[in-house]
Write a sequence for this structure.
């Protein structure tokens, strides 16, 4: 899968998590290049890289090397059993804008 290949070759990965299944999340967390995780919920075992996000933000996304953005209706943190889509956007300006609008405004 392209997402796994992107994760394996990335230098920096940021996860934005609203909903997740621990089994699926653990498969992603084996990649040691995950530098930050933004979530509104406590996730056991990852406190050192986790940042609290407002509960009202309903977004699941992955930002890779500040250039690639994985985003869409398909949640990469759960087992998806329905037909939906996820976009792989390879555009630094869009990834930066997403981060600034959704994450950087969080305090």
């Amino acid at each position: 899968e392209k997402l796994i290949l992107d994760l394996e070759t990335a230098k920096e990965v940021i996860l934005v998590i609203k909903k997740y299944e621990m089994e699926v999340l653990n498969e992603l967390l084996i990649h040691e290049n995950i530098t930050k995780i933004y979530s509104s919920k406590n996730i056991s075992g990852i406190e050192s890289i986790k940042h609290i996000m407002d509960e009202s933000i309903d977004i699941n996304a992955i930002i890779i090397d500040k250039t690639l953005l994985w985003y869409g209706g398909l949640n990469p943190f759960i087992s998806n059993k329905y037909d939906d889509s996820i976009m792989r956007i390879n555009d630094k300006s869009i990834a930066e804008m997403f981060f600034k609008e959704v994450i950087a405004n969080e305090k």
